[in-house]
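Our platform keeps sequence and structure together, in a single record for each protein. Nothing more is needed to write down the fold, since each code stands for a local backbone conformation. An entry from our holdings is shown next, in its original layout:
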Amino acid sequence: MYSLVNAPTVGYDLARLPTGAAVATVLLEALAIAPDDGTLHDHGFDAVRGAADDPRRAAAWLAVSALDPPRRLETTLSEVADIVEDAARRLQDRYSDTALPARPTLGAAAASLSTAYFGDLDDLLSLLRTDILADAPPHVVTLGCDALAAAYAGRRIPDDVRHLLGRPWITAVRALPPIPADLGPFADDVRGVLGRLATLAPREAEALIAASHAVDGEWSLRMHEAAWATYLSGRLRAAAAAQFQAVRALRVAGVSASQAARGVWNAVSGCVQAVAVHDLLDDVTYGLLVAPWESVLGLLG
């Protein structure tokens, strides 16, 4: 299940999704409608309120629901576990005359981990409804869900369906402040990281992958501590916005889904999270999260 607390996990999926940058944009726009200060900037939706009741929406959502679902990470992990168990059983029975059926190789199953996702469109819609736009008027939530579905589906649905679902939202959000609307008290520092990220060269992406492997053992624990800090400090939305901006910056830089999965996302996400709440982290946690970035791209200011 996605949430603002685990925005880095959402970002990991979006960084590998072909339409991830478009989805991240809708999420950023939704965050601009409902920032951390509790003020709703929904005045741009008055002119498109009627679109939420458009009877053509039902058929459009049928087209969205017909999309093939993404491969879920838990399914792939289960397959990997089955293969390991099967290999152990074969090892025990290697002197047996009983022929065992062929199974997929561990290498093939492990490789599929990079293309499996923690969540899907339903999880993204739940994030939008229950976390980001929880206090927004129903018609804003409805149009936000439509736009999110259109962005997620991309060209897998007909253009007229995509335009029907996405156009009202696009029209309304023109009244919002430019993205990024709010990146927290250290916005300038975060923007500096994001700006550099957008110019990442291919050799730098590969170097980040290698550097991220050096901190794999501690990364999850330290990211959990940083995520908890965003929650306790009331900076959930600003920190999530930084993560979603990182997704867009990676797309601008041309970082591939494979590179993101192999370590670029962990290096970038950890750095962005650490910079956003660096005043709340101990030196060890901060240092470990920014270590891959600094070892490849230089010391942060």
About this structure: The CA atoms of residues 17 and 282 lie 33 Å apart. The two ends are 35 Å apart (CA to CA).
